[in-house]
């Protein structure tokens, strides 16, 4: 096979491990959001925060939080590069308009309305409200209550993806492909040692653990943190051998990340925030940066080794994950508001909320999406081409 | 060939050419626009001021780049002689330049306009600011139309630069002037957009004059045998 044929195969083949990693990143978002209600750290700020809570939740979910969306953006960058090579910029933007911009425009107001309605209803009816619900109750009783500016909610990732796609076009128009080549030539030490340092200023600009950039205006810190992951994924396309080379060090990176996370939790417990400037300490930002890069790489290596295959279950999860992620939060909130007054153990509440939300979202996929108009937007058609080992 | 017959395929090619040549500058403008929105999103007084200023710079740059790429550079590189050797009339060329320039200018202009309206209406900023923003956008549109017409009517590079810089710099006195009109400026910090007669009159004047200068230039070109 000559080089030209090799590139053609690369551009048309299916990367099962990337598909599956994207699905995992999306579906673990449901776990993450379900667990937030039982997190002591987020108790004052989360609408469905429950009386039942546990430190164990904080230990688990903030570790996941540090690399879940970075991994998602690496995968998104990887597929963006594949689409550009396969369809050209015009075809790429047409596809992204349909798969990212249109779902955002359609689902953002629906999700916003559903969340607002269930939250207002909960504020009026729940007997054991969270601090956030208490605040909303007080707002509702005010005559001249200030209206909160609408945010992008949990669909912020679609908003940032659109910005990154525009930046791909900008970079190509300004002839930055040469920079691509230089970055691709950098060795593992640069990737693993210096890339995290690029992220530190962004992470030091916000509180730790870093929040979701839900504002309708783009945030510098979010661009500074997620854009390098997206760019990394973009550059990774066609260079998947690099993941094979990184396989040897992946277990060490996992151990090092766990060790750094233990330090992160220690520092987090002693962290005091200034209300005027709630940004993280430099040490916390450095730890977040290294854990996010190293764990993202561990996930990529593990995904390539274990998930580079497709069967009916994986295929279904990969197909339904986008739809599930988009609609899960209103469903989850409605269930968790209903659970707030029950005297159950946090583990039981968490399990019920998670299973019910996942069940409703995953099972609604064939009923609402597959074979219908929504397939083109948030679903998936028949599998194409063969798997690539990367 | 009558003065009103147009060669659509060649016009389309010329528009595509202008669009391709403009992409690099447009990419710069779009990137600067994202940076400006980020600055505004920092929700601090200084960053809001800096972000707004950067947005105005982006708008003015897009206008100037659009005219310069499609008209002035083409003249400097002496490609006009080649273009005019194609089967195009002065009207065809005028239309190609008009539509090409309008597309390259209006693409960033409308994106920034919609973004600005969204920022003002959907964030805690006072909604009354929308009128100031619209009047400033109206001024840039008028300045662009005048500059474009000068570029199409006058060959001198000096006069073209003067028209572009002069009309765009007038945005400063424009801001001062709007500030002096109490019936408009007194509502800037209010929670509602006030559409009163003075504001609507200025907006309509900007719009009508913008369209009028473009139409007059077109009418002049239908009567010409050569572009200049």
Q: How are the SSEs placed, and which strands pair?
A:
The complex is a heterodimer of chains A (390) and B (228).
Chain A (H helix, E strand, L loop, with lengths): L2 H10 L3 H21 L18 H71 L5 H11 L14 H18 L3 H8 L3 H17 L15 H17 L4 H6 L3 H21 L11 H25 L5 H28 L6 H24 L5 H4 L12
Helix pairs in contact in A: 1-3, 2-3, 2-11, 2-12, 2-13, 3-4, 3-5, 3-8, 3-11, 3-12, 7-8, 7-11, 10-11, 12-13
Chain B lengths: L7 H34 L3 H32 L3 H5 L5 H33 L6 H25 L3 H13 L1 H10 L1 H4 L11 H26 L6
Helix pairs in contact in B: 1-2, 1-4, 2-4, 2-5, 4-5, 4-9, 5-6, 5-7, 5-9
Biggest β-sheet strands, sense, barrel of chain A: none
- Helix-strand category of chain B: mainly alpha
Mean pLDDT of chain B: 85
Main pleated sheet of chain B: none
What features would you describe in this structure?
The complex is a heterodimer of chains A (390) and B (228). Chain A is mainly α and 390 residues long. Chain A has one domain (3-140, 150-378). Chain A has helices at residues 3-12, 16-36, 55-125, 131-141, 156-173, 177-184, 188-204, 220-236, 241-246, 250-270, 282-306, 312-339, 346-369, 375-378. In chain A, helix 2 (16-36) packs across helix 3 (55-125) and helix 2 (16-36) packs across helix 13. Residues 1-5 and 383-390 of chain A have low confidence and may be disordered. With 228 residues, chain B is mostly helical. Chain B has one domain (8-222). In chain B, helix 1 (8-41) packs antiparallel against helix 2 and helix 4 packs antiparallel against helix 9. The longest helix of chain B is centred in the N-terminal third of the chain and has 34 residues, at 8-41. The A-B interface holds A 149-150, 163, 166-167, 169-171, 173-175, 215-220, 223 and B 23-24, 26-28, 30-31, 34, 37-42, 118-119, 122-124.
């Amino acid at each position: 096979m000559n080089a030209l044929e090799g590139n053609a195969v690369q551009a048309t083949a299916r990367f099962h491990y990337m598909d599956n990693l994207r699905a995992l990143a999306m579906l673990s978002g449901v776990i993450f959001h379900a667990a937030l209600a039982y997190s002591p750290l987020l108790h004052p700020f989360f609408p469905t925060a429950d009386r039942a809570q546990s430190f164990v939740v904080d230990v688990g979910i903030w570790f996941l939080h540090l690399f879940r969306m970075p991994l998602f953006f690496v995968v998104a960058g990887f597929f963006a590069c594949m689409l550009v090579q396969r369809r050209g910029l015009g075809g790429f933007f047409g596809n992204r308009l349909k798969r990212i911009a249109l779902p955002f425009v359609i689902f953002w107001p629906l999700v916003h309305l559903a969340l607002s309605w269930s939250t207002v209803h909960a504020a009026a009816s729940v007997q054991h409200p969270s601090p956030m619900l208490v605040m909303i109750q007080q707002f509702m009783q005010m005559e001249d209550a200030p209206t909160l500016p609408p945010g992008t909610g949990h669909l912020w990732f679609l908003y940032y993806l659109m910005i990154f796609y525009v930046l791909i076009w900008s970079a190509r128009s300004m002839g930055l492909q040469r920079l691509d080549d230089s970055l691709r030539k950098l060795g593992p030490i640069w990737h693993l040692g210096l890339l995290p340092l690029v992220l530190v200023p962004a992470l030091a600009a916000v509180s730790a653990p870093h929040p979701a950039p839900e504002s309708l205006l783009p945030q510098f810190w979010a661009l500074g943190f997620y854009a390098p992951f997206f760019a990394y994924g973009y550059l990774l396309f066609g260079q998947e051998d690099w993941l094979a080379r990184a396989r040897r060090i992946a277990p060490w990176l996992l151990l090092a990340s766990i060790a750094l996370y233990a330090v992160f939790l220690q520092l987090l417990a002693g962290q005091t925030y200034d209300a005027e400037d709630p940004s993280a300490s430099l040490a916390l930002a450095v730890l977040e940066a290294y854990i996010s890069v190293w764990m993202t790489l561990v996930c990529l290596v593990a995904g390539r080794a274990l998930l580079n295959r497709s069967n009916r279950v994986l295929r279904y999860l990969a197909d339904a994950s986008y739809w599930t992620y988009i609609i899960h939060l209103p469903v989850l909130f409605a269930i968790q508001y209903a659970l707030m007054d029950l005297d159950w153990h946090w583990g039981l509440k968490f399990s019920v909320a998670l299973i019910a939300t996942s069940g409703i979202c995953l099972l609604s996929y064939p009923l609402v999406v597959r074979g219908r108009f929504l397939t083109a937007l948030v679903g998936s058609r028949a599998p194409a081409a063969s798997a690539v080992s990367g | 060939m009558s003065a009103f017959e147009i060669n659509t395929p060649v016009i389309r090619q010329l528009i595509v050419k202008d669009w391709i040549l403009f992409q690099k500058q447009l990419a710069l403008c779009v990137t600067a626009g994202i940076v400006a929105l980020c600055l505004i999103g920092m929700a601090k007084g200084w960053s809001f001021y800096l972000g707004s200023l950067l947005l105005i710079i982006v708008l003015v740059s897009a206008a100037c780049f659009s005219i310069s790429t499609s008209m002035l550079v083409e003249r400097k590189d002496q490609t006009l002689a080649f273009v005019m050797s194609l089967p195009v009339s002065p009207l065809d060329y005028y239309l190609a330049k008009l539509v090409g320039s309008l597309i390259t200018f209006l693409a960033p202009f409308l994106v920034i306009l919609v973004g600005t309206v969204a920022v003002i209406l959907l964030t805690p900023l006072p909604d009354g600011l929308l009128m100031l923003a619209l009047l400033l956008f109206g001024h840039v549109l008028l300045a662009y139309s005048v500059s474009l017409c000068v570029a199409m009517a006058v060959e001198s590079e000096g006069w073209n630069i003067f028209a572009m810089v002069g009309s765009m710099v007038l945005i400063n006195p424009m801001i001062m002037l709007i500030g002096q009109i109490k019936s408009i400026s007194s509502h800037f910090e209010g929670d509602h957009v006030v559409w009163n007669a003075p504001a609507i009159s200025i907006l309509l004047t900007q719009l009508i004059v913008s369209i009028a200068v473009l139409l007059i230039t077109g009418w002049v070109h239908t009567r010409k045998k050569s572009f200049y």
